[in-house]
Amino acid sequence: MPALLPEELVKWQFVESKVKRVLQAYAFQEIRTPIVERTELFQRTIGQDTDVVAKEMYSFNDRKNQSLSLRPEATAGVIRAGIEHGLFYNQTQKLWSMGPMYRYERPQKGRYRQFHQINMEAFGYQGPQIDLEMILMTSRIWKALKVNAIELEINSLGTSTSRQAYRKVLVEYFSDHKSDLDEDSTKRLVSNPMRILDSKNPEMGNLISNAPNITDYLDTESEDHFATLTNSLEQHNISFQLNPRLVRGLDYYTKTVFEWTTDQLGSQATVCGGGRYDDLVKQLGGQDVCGVGCAIGFERLTELVEVLSKKEQNMQPKIYIVAVGDDTELHASLLAEKIRDTNEEYAVEINMDGGSFKQQFRKADKSGSELAIVIGEEEIQQGNLGFKPLMIDQEQTTIKEENLMQEINRFFTE
Ligand code: HAM
Question: What is the position in ligand 1's atom list of the atom closest to the CA of 75?
Fold first, then answer.
C-alpha cells in the first residue's frame, strides 16, 4: 500500500466519519482486535484450500516456534476475541472494526498487500432480517458518500446439510470433466470442490459456468430464508442481481452471501463482500451462535468518492501568525496558545525561524491558511494586531488584541 499523505488522509477521515455515523445509526459498536494471530486460527476459519490461506498469508514463526500470521481479514479475530471474552453467551452483538489487513497478492490499482477494511459482524440473529439490515446499512453508506455506480449481487450457499447434497453433484460433474481441471482444481476436487467455482483461471471459465447451480439444491429452510430476504430487498427498493456463481473466496459462509461491485475500478470491482456464517463460532469452540457480516475495502471505497469541497471535508479553519521583530516570536506563541485555549477547532500555525514580512507572507500563502494575524514591535506596544485575509482580495486592517477571538470568529462564520 502506498503511504497515505496528509491530503489523501483528509478524504479518508471524511469517509471514515460518514461510515461511522451510519454504523451508529444501526447500533453497531466498535471492537479492535490484534493484527497478529495464530496462523491456525485463519486456517480453521477461512479454510486451508482458499487462496487467502494457501497462497496469500504473511506467516512467520516467533521465538517459541509458534506460527503467527498478519491478519488477512477481520472476521476470524473478532470471533476469537468474542469467544475469549464471553461476548456470545446469551446475547446478541453488533460489532464493527476498521484497520489494516495483509494479503500477499499481486499488487495493482485497487489491490494491495496492505489494505484496510471496515468490517461489521452481527451475532445471534437467526432470521433473514439481519442479512437485510447488513445490506441496507451498506447501501446507506454508499448514499451518504454519494457513490452511485455500485450494484448488489446475492446468492445463497444453503445450510451445511444442503451443501452436502450440492457437493455430491458438483464432484460428479467435475469428475466427468477431470481432464479440463487445472492443478489447483484437481486438488480441490477431493478437498473442497466448491472452491473450484471460485477459480480465477480463465481457461476454467466455461466448465465453471456450466456447472450445476447451488440454488437448485437448497433445502426448504435455506430457500425460505433466501426468499424472505429477496422479498424484503424488493420492498426496500434495493435492486440486486441473483448470481448463483457467487461463492465468495472464504470457506465459512452458509446461506446468504453478497457482494457490492462497481464498474468504475477496473478489474478490482468488489467494494464490499460478506454473508452468513452460522456454523463458524461453534466450529471455533464457542457457543452455537449464528453470525453474519461483511467488509468494505476502504481503498476501493475512497477511490469511488468524489473530491470533496472543503466544507464537506470538514477541514479546520487555518490561521497563520506572522511575527517580525525582536520578541515577537514569543508573543506569537502566547497568542497561538490563547487561540487554541479558546477554540481547538482552529488550526494555528506560527511562523518559525524568522524572515521578512514578505517571506513570512509567502509561507503563510503556501500553508493554505485563510487568515494571517500580524505581530510587529509597534503592534505589541500599542496592544494591536494586523488582520489580513489571505484567500480573498482584502486589505490588512488593524484590530485590538483583546478583540482577537471575536474578530476571528466573525471572519470564519461570515
Ligand atoms: P473479502 O471479500 O475477502 O471478505 O474482502 C472484503 C473486501 O476487502 C473486498 O471486497 C475488497 O473490497 C477488499 N479487499 C480484499 N483484498 C484486498 C486487497 N488485496 N487490496 C485491497 N482491497 C482488498 C472478507 O474479508 C470477509 N472477512 C468479509 C466478511 C466479514 N464476511 C463476513 N464478515
Answer: 27
